[in-house]
């Protein structure tokens, strides 16, 4: 084979490869290389349609929420100076304030108003006594005791949001609470970044699509399905370019056709050193290779670079390697492109209940099931066989067990680092 990039074969006892970048270095190189999308193609969307989109503008609150002081309880609104220090006191009920129907007058000493939760606090009132703490007397009179204190059950204007404050910053991905937050200041539409355009294709002469029949040596293409799922979860605008044969000319034309119309191109397979692994070589001829190979398992031959204005990931073909490298590298790249904060995934510590086999030299992402024992301690067990072709290990898992580069065999009872799938997949 010609034109092969050098590969230093790891020894049998460890997996060290001096050419492979550490995971953190590779992540930093990706973040450093990518500049966020400009907002020239940002669009206005009706509020509900903006769910999961990225804000193009910082939103400043145009009003206080709540706009007026209001009651937190159903009860009686009165003056704090009327609260008895000891014993009880009678007050005269002069009217009522309901949510949407404020009391128009002023309350003075010796008086009170019937008030409902959410109703505007009338002028003069600074305290609401819950009705459970009030004794009803005849002829519009009540009796209160010394249990309450001035200011009780009054929600001040702007206690949630104050006019002029930054409500949500540009680059924030709009979540479910944010839809309510934006509605609470009366916004009908928001300006959001366009969705990221991501093309993906698989490579391999052995691949057939679902619905086709398999000849000997052929397998179904599963990578385009996991990629579809992961990209849809990230709200990308996707182009599935299908399965491309192990043919440099076909790879070349697929890459060149996709580059002008996409922010990111993802290929799977063909990035290792086999005679039919053309993806990295073809990419390196056409574009700028940023790095090849990361000291991780699975996912070592990962390839990253740029082709015209599109970023490129050549993910290793093994189905688990695709998912692991997507989570660790494609996700931060998408976040960086979208201009959202690139926060590392949350990790927790858990006690392993399994023996975890590992050789030094690569960070490993084993697939685990995170659970609690009866005392509330976090436990994690591995999902059986851990080969990078064992996709069922991902399907059974709810977390990655992240074993650091120099870590070796883990015994049951040892504490390990775990990355839950929530927010990743
Ligand atoms: N001599 C060496 N061989 C290999 C090395 C190495 O360092 N030296 N690295 C191994 C590692 S680690 C990985 S990961 C793989 C990655 O290789 P490729 O990216 O070139 O992937 P392929 O060879 O094309 O495929 C690997 C495997 O995955 C299956 N596959 C591929 N695409 C799909 C798909 N779309 N759906 C389902 N399954 C797919 C493919 O049939 C192979 O079994 O290289 C090792 N070799
Ligand atoms: O790096 Mo590979 O993904 O171990 O099989």
Automatic annotation (TrEMBL):
Classification via Pfam families: MoCF_biosynth, MoeA_C, MoeA_N
GO molecular function: metal ion binding; molybdopterin molybdotransferase activity
Entries under SMART domains matching the protein: MoCF_biosynth
Enzyme Commission number(s) of this protein: 2.10.1.1
Record GO biological process: Mo-molybdopterin cofactor biosynthetic process
Source taxon at top rank: Bacteria
Alphabetical list of InterPro entries matching this protein: MoaB/Mog-like_dom_sf, MoaB/Mog_dom, MoeA-like, MoeA_C_domain_IV, MoeA_C_domain_IV_sf, MoeA_linker/N, MoeA_linker/N_sf
Gene3D superfamilies: MoaB/Mog-like domain, MoeA, C-terminal, domain IV, Molybdopterin biosynthesis moea protein, domain 2, Molybdopterin biosynthesis moea protein, domain 3
GO cellular component: cytosol
Keywords noted in UniProt: Magnesium, Metal-binding, Molybdenum, Molybdenum cofactor biosynthesis, Transferase
Pathway(s): Cofactor biosynthesis; molybdopterin biosynthesis
MoaB/Mog domain sequence ranges: 199-336
Reaction(s) the record says it catalyses: adenylyl-molybdopterin + molybdate = Mo-molybdopterin + AMP + H(+)
UniProt cofactor(s): Mg(2+)
Annotated function: Catalyzes the insertion of molybdate into adenylated molybdopterin with the concomitant release of AMP.
UniProt similarity note: Belongs to the MoeA family.
Protein name: Molybdopterin molybdenumtransferase
Protein source organism: Methylomonas paludis
